[in-house]
From TrEMBL, chain A:
GO terms for biological process: mRNA splicing, via spliceosome. This is Splicing factor subunit. GO terms for cellular component: precatalytic spliceosome; U2 snRNP. Belongs to the SF3B5 family. It comes from Saxophila tyrrhenica.
TrEMBL record, chain B:
Residues 863-880 have a biased composition (Basic and acidic residues). This is Pre-mRNA-splicing factor rse1. The gene is RSE1. Belongs to the RSE1 family. Residues 909-1232 form the RSE1/DDB1/CPSF1 C-terminal domain. One of its GO terms (cellular component) is spliceosomal complex. Residues 36-390 form the RSE1/DDB1/CPSF1 first beta-propeller domain. InterPro entries: Beta-prop_RSE1/DDB1/CPSF1_1st, Beta-prop_RSE1/DDB1/CPSF1_2nd, RSE1/DDB1/CFT1, RSE1/DDB1/CPSF1_C, WD40/YVTN_repeat-like_dom_sf. Residues 856-880 are annotated as: Disordered. Residues 1236-1263 form a coiled coil. It is found in: Nucleus. One of its GO terms (molecular function) is nucleic acid binding. GO terms for biological process: mRNA processing; RNA splicing. It comes from Saxophila tyrrhenica. Residues 474-799 form the RSE1/DDB1/CPSF1 second beta-propeller domain.
Length: 84, 1266
């Protein structure tokens, strides 16, 4: 039992430290949100990629960066209602 | 390369590093300079730069000169500089993708970055929760904060210990689960505890609320994090809700200088916020002008602060996304006695000037504004006025006083201003940059000596068509015809050795057998009376001793003493002089009898002949005595070249005159020799080099051993088809400074050999001009340059800069270029251009007409009309005042170029242009696209049914909305007839398609085009294109096409490339037979050979894939009966899979890739160019030993010289996919910059001499490129 508890604690610690660490009940919404957030963070983090997008969209990079940041709030829409 | 073996390896080299700035800041890193004399610390791609601004005393000549750059082999994301109290120079902090914070110092003695601290705080790579995206440092230099886009923040406290060392604390974390960070800045709190401000959004509740209500009501918080230096921790000390559109924050000076707090820049508003005072708000003024959308809101994209510490005054420059810069000042409330308090009362904005949209804007205390431009050239502006006078352009003053604390939702009357040309600033330096480089092609339509790089670059009105040549630009000062005399050589001579300027210019013509003497004064004029012999051709002329002029001609030597006495030395009978060389004291002649005659000049200015006249092994073709070393009487060695393809080194010292020292055999007859003493930049010691020009156009450089006279360290370079002639010159970049001794080598084009000021390497670069016959230094009162004979002209020129390696010619375009192609048989180019979110000229005209009509309808009382009136009043006022400041006068077109195109969301402006870069050097025809179409690609297609007549075909998309996948837009293919050899275009017809056309390619006299995931072949018809065949090709969207024979390669937007075979005849089928296993978001690709494709993707990778042999064979079986037709699809794709052959990460996004040779007579390489302005090559290794050697060297350098920012090199080059088959040449070239000990160590490991390793590394580049 103690082992199980420790595993549980370790998992929780991991989930706290690394966002996106899944668990047995990870929903599709959580999973896809996570991927999208990772993607949007990556677009901003790589300057050439952000530049590429800004040229394609005809907007200054700051605007595109804001767009990416904004999409990170709720990248795939609101969560579906949970049935109890 | 056609036989790409399975183990083929490549050497990847960067020819021109990325020019797009990612981060920049001002700093003071050079000890001993004034605080005012700030340097610029800039990061571009994977390199760090330190620039200095160099100006002459009256500021007429300004230069931004780079004094240090270093490749850090990591993605640099932020830079910052701060001064730790009590230290003499600034510390530089770099945040990169290494998961580590790097603190650097500049070591002025060695001119290198010195790493002070390297602290790990997280995983490497660019991740959502690893700090590094944002970097802010406390203005008082006590700590710095790194933040990630989500959750994590880390603060490092820095200190100075008693010994002057810099201490760094352990990281203090300030993490907040589920919070997104939009911006970070440091507050100026004076000497109180440092505070960092951030803009944050908490998404935790919004994510867990299925109704979406919380999301609708989400809030953005301005959060203060206080670093408690006493308790040594970081706490969240204050937070408050701000306007949700906030995107940027700036710290307002605090302590004794101001009220502290932050400026929060939002869409359409700027707020002042602080925890200790009320908030202020001012709207961002909008542009007013013909066709402008009155409701479009601006946001701030860049800004900088100027703080005058002594006067406690400050202001901000803030730039909007249109490029307009506003000056923001704050006024303070006054207390009872009328003294200003620290309580801000109002914000004031004043329209300053308009600049290109900046990534970073830096105000330099010397009075310059540096714009690290997002697109196009970086610019340095000279600030002539700070717009302090409120009476100048009073209509451009805006104040928050009338707004009070404006709530975000509150409706208000927007502010308007009219942008104009530059008024308060003037352009000082235009730093040439190549970003964004949309496409390049290496081509040589006019059969010049070396191929040129043609590129389309830039965005909007600042777009350019560029012709890039390797070489140095010259500034022509005088080019005057010499009449029909064919001159072959010239000399510029001083009258006395102590003179500063040249007095005589001798031009000699072998053909006419005469000499022309020109006098150099205020003008260069023919001297009627001169002591020189004019009825013979001159072989050598110069000043010897203190004031003796010496002229050598075929029949003798004439020396003109200062007193006017003329001494003649006639040649021995039946012998003539064939070559001669002189320095200050020594004169060596080669006679037609293969004998040498040697003279030494005494202090009396008289030439004394050595009686001995040794005979050489063959006819003397060239000889040279070295320059007299400084402080000595005589040079040690002379070099004599003979027609038996040898050169001999002779001692010419008086105690051992004309004693042979060594012999060197050559591959051809030497035509020109020069012995020059040059400083070896790595050691700083003078070394005697002999430069050798051969009949075959080769150029060699060898070192003469000081003691033995042996020749060693030979470097060879092929210069051109003509025999090489060499001229020693003093080349200096710009007017500043004394030139270094260099060599000008004239072959089929002129080359300059010099020590590069930045890389400290001996560099050979061609001069971009017509061939020169001869060249010499030329110093007069006004000119410090070179003079040369160019055909029948006398050319006097200066070299503008020795730093750059590329010379560029530009032709302005209208919109962002998207694609280009060349006339297959002609010399014209066509460029498809389109610009998103701007009004097309036609729509703009309609809008203006509508506005006019409305105004007329409303009568004079209309609101718009009123505003116009007010403006006119203002305009009159300034005339009355007779104000000195006036905006630059610009034509409407120049003004549009300066201010940018009129923006309007959802609109597209697009056109196709024909360009003649050779004769007209201009755009020769432009056809605009209407109905909101955007040109995406262009191809020149010779149609077989029209007897191979070339048509220009343009693919477009209509109502495109990039970033919005929901919208399905239509596409068109326009066909244009070519007139006037390509200079003109004529519409033929257009064909509608269901989706935008991204790829066009001429294929067997027809047009191959990609529509979505399908590949089609079309033929030209009378009214539209006619479909011939179709086939499913790729999974998503074809983005480019290429072909060889019947094999077509289609690249997909996200799924790499697919090989397709076309079965002609009755079958008429397109059969995809091989595709890839890895998703590559292909941005460009080319066929390296029939089996291999090289490409680049949007994440910055370069890769080579090859089709399996069986698949390749099967696909080429005759007809439709073959096996490939019935092959089953494998795992939902094509029957066969491609194999990966090489892979590396370049950071930049490759937008073009091509197999080509870059230098005359060079091997073919894989040339690629990237969006951020990178030009790179991949050189295939020829021998196995080379691969082993360079891999070993690379490995050693990895451990000996680990990347500066702490990123593991191997991990970096294998960012997405492990490196395969590629040796990083940029890392290998770091060897040249290492210290002596490290070089020795590595050379020992590879069991070679240091010199040999250096030569191998340099040759790898010089053999194939520049």
């Amino acid at each position: 039992m103690a082992d199980k508890l420790r595993t549980q604690q370790q998992l929780e610690q991991l989930q706290n430290k690394y966002i996106g660490t899944g668990h047995a009940d990870t929903t599709k919404h959580e999973w896809t949100s996570n991927i999208q957030r990772d993607s949007y963070a990556s677009y901003q983090g790589h300057p050439p990629l952000l530049h590429y997008m800004s040229i394609g969209m005809g907007l200054p990079t700051e605007r595109v960066r804001m767009h990416c940041m904004e999409r990170m709030v709720l990248p795939v829409g609101v969560a579906p209602a949970v049935e109890d | 390369m056609a036989n790409t073996q399975s183990s083929q390896a490549f050497y990847s080299l960067t020819l021109e590093a990325s020019s797009a700035p990612t981060a920049a800041c001002t700093c003071n890193v050079i000890p001993g300079l004034k605080l005012q004399d700030q340097q610029i610390f800039e990061a571009r791609g994977q390199r760090l730069y330190l620039h200095r601004i160099i100006e002459n005393s009256d500021r007429t000549e300004v230069q931004v000169s780079t004094f240090l750059d270093q490749d850090v082999f990591g993605i640099v994301r932020g830079v910052s500089a701060f001064r730790i109290p009590g230290t003499s120079t600034d510390q530089l902090v770099v945040s990169s993708d290494s998961g580590r914070i790097v603190m650097l110092n500049y070591d002025a003695e060695k001119n290198v970055f010195k790493r002070i601290h390297l602290e790990t705080f997280g995983k490497s790579g660019i991740r959502r929760t690893i700090p590094g995206q944002y970097l802010a440092s406390d203005p008082k230099g006590r700590c710095c904060m790194l933040a990630s886009v989500e959750k994590n923040k880390v603060v490092y406290i820095v200190n100075r210990n008693a010994e002057g060392g810099i201490l760094i604390s352990s990281p203090h974390e300030a993490n907040q689960w589920a919070s997104l960070c939009f911006a970070v800045c440091a507050l100026d709190t004076g000497w109180e505890h440092p505070v960092f401000a951030t803009l944050e959004v908490d998404y935790n509740d919004a994510e867990n609320d299925p109704t979406g209500e919380t999301y609708e009501n989400r809030e953005k918080q301005l959060v203060y994090y206080t670093v408690d230096l006493g308790l040594n921790h970081v706490v969240k000390s204050w937070s408050d809700t701000v306007d949700y559109t906030a995107n940027m924050i700036f710290g307002v000076p605090g302590g004794a200088d101001g009220p502290s707090g932050v400026l929060v820049c939002c869409e359409d508003r700027i707020y002042y916020r602080h925890d200790k005072s009320g908030s202020l708000c001012i709207p961002i003024p909008r542009r007013k002008g013909a066709g402008e959308d009155q409701h479009r809101k601006r946001c701030i994209v860049a800004g900088c602060l100027h703080l005058a510490r002594t006067k406690h005054e400050f202001f901000f420059f803030l730039q909007t996304d249109d490029g307009d810069v506003f000056k923001l000042t704050m006024s303070m409330a006054e207390d009872d006695q009328g003294r200003p308090t620290a309580d801000p009362e109002a914000l004031h904005l004043k329209y300053y000037d308009t600049f290109p949209v900046a990534k970073h804007m830096l105000l330099i205390r010397k009075g310059y504004l540096y714009i690290a431009a997002e697109n196009g050239n970086n610019k340095l502006y000279h600030v002539t006025d700070l717009a302090d006078d409120p009476t100048v352009e009073p209509w451009n003053n805006f104040s928050s006083a009338e707004y009070g604390d404006l709530l975000p939702a509150q409706d208000y009357k927007p502010l308007y201003f009219k942008p104009r040309g530059l008024m308060y600033t003037s352009l000082a330096v235009d730093v040439p940059s190549l970003h964004p480089l949309m496409r390049t092609t290496v081509d040589n339509p006019l059969n010049e000596d070396a191929p040129q790089i043609y590129g389309i670059q830039g965005t909007g009105k600042r777009s350019k068509f560029k012709t890039i040549r390797h070489g140095l630009n010259i500034q022509e000062i005088v080019s005057s015809p010499l009449g029909n005399v064919d001159c072959s050589n010239l000399w510029s001579i001083k009258h006395r050795a102590s003179d500063q300027y040249h007095s005589y210019l001798l031009l000699s013509s072998d053909y006419a057998d005469k000499t022309i003497v020109l006098g150099i004064g205020d003008e260069v004029e023919t001297m009627e009376e001169s002591p020189f012999l004019t009825n013979r051709a001159t072989l050598e002329a110069g000043l010897m001793g203190d004031a003796t002029l010496v002229q050598v001609h075929a029949r003798g030597v004439r020396s003109i003493l200062e007193s006017g006495t003329i001494n003649e030395w006639p040649t021995p009978s039946h012998r003539t002089i064939v070559s001669a060389s002189a320095n200050e004291r020594q004169l060596l002649l080669g006679l037609s009898s293969a004998e040498l005659a040697f003279f030494f000049m005494g202090d009396d200015g008289v030439l004394n002949q050595l009686e001995e006249m040794p005979e050489m092994s063959g006819k003397v073709t060239a000889l040279s005595v070295g320059q007299t070393p400084k402080g000595q009487m005589q040079a040690k060695f002379a070099v004599v070249g003979c027609d038996d393809c040898t050169i001999r080194v002779l001692s010419i010292e008086l105690d051992s005159p004309l004693e042979p020292r060594s012999v060197q055999a050559l591959s051809a007859v030497p035509t020109s020799l020069e012995v020059v003493e040059q400083v070896d930049p790595t050691t700083g010691v003078g070394v005697t080099y002999v430069h050798i020009g051969l009949q075959s156009g080769l150029y060699l450089r060898a070192v003469i051993d000081e003691v033995t006279g042996e020749l060693g360290e030979v470097r060879t370079k092929f210069l051109g088809a003509k025999a090489t002639r060499l001229f020693p010159v003093n080349a200096s970049g710009g007017a500043a400074g004394e030139g270094e001794s260099s060599i000008l080598a004239c072959s089929s084009r002129p080359w300059l050999g010099y020590n590069h000021p930045l890389s400290q390497l001996y560099t050979l670069a061609p001069l971009v001009t017509s061939p020169l016959d001869a060249a010499r230094g030329f110093v007069s009162e006004h000119i410090n340059g070179l003079c040369a004979i160019q055909g029948t002209n006398l050319l006097i020129f200066e070299l503008s800069s020795l730093e750059g390696r590329l010379a560029t010619e530009e032709i302005a375009l209208k919109y962002t270029p998207r694609g280009m192609c060349r006339h297959p048989y002609g010399t014209t180019w066509w460029v498809a251009q389109s610009e998103g979110n701007v009004l097309s000229p036609r729509t703009k005209a309609t809008h203006i007409a509508n506005e006019e009509a409305k105004k007329l309808g409303n009568g004079v009382n209309g609101e718009d009309a009123k505003m116009e009136d007010g403006d006119e009043d203002g305009g009159v006022k300034i005339d009355e005042d007779g104000e000195k400041l006036t905006p630059e006068e610009l034509t409407p077109d120049e003004l549009e170029r300066h201010l940018g195109l009129t923006k309007a969301t959802g609109h597209w402006a697009s056109c196709i242009s024909a360009i003649d870069p050779y004769e007209a050097k201009a755009v020769t025809a432009t056809i605009e696209f209407e109905e909101n179409e955007a040109a995406l690609c262009v191809a020149a297609v010779p149609f077989e049914v029209r007897n191979w007549e070339v048509f220009v075909v343009v693919g477009t998309g209509q109502h495109l909305q990039p970033g919005n996948t929901m919208v399905q837009s239509k596409g068109y293919v326009h066909v244009f007839r070519v007139t006037d050899e390509g200079r003109g275009l004529e519409r033929v017809h257009r064909t509608e398609f269901t989706s935008p056309i991204y790829a066009l390619h001429p294929f067997h006299g027809r047009l191959a085009l990609g529509i979505g995931a399908e590949l089609f072949l079309y033929d030209i018809g009378m009214k539209h294109l006619l479909r011939k065949t179709r086939g499913a090709a790729v999974p998503n969207q074809i983005t480019s096409l290429t072909s060889q024979g019947n094999r077509l390669i289609a690249s997909d937007v996200s799924e790499s490339v697919t090989y397709i075979v076309y079965k002609g005849g009755d079958a008429n089928r397109l059969i995809p037979f091989a595709d890839d296993t890895v998703q590559r978001w292909t941005s460009s690709m080319t066929m390296l050979d029939y089996e291999t494709v090289a490409g680049g993707d949007k994440f910055g990778n370069l890769w080579l894939v090859r089709s399996p042999e069986q698949a390749s064979k099967e696909s080429d079986e005759e007809g439709i009966g073959g096996y490939i037709v019935n092959e089953r699809s494998y795992l939902g794709g094509a029957p066969y899979r491609l194999e990966l052959r090489a892979h590396t990460f370049t950071q930049d996004i490759p937008t073009s890739i091509q197999r080509t040779a870059l230098v005359a007579g060079g091997q073919e390489v894989l040339f690629w160019s990237g969006l951020e302005g990178t030009l790179g090559i991949m050189v295939p290794f020829v021998s196995r030993e080379d691969v082993e050697f360079f891999s070993q060297l690379e490995g050693l350098l990895r451990s000996e010289d680990p990347p500066l920012a702490g990123r593991d090199h191997l991990m970096y080059r294998g960012y997405y996919v492990p490196v395969k088959g590629v040796v990083d040449g940029d890392l290998c070239e770091r060897f040249l910059r290492l210290g002596f000990d490290a070089k020795q160590k590595i050379a020992g490991e590879v069991e070679r001499e240091v010199r040999e390793v250096e030569r191998k590394v340099q040759e790898m580049r010089s053999r194939v490129a520049f």
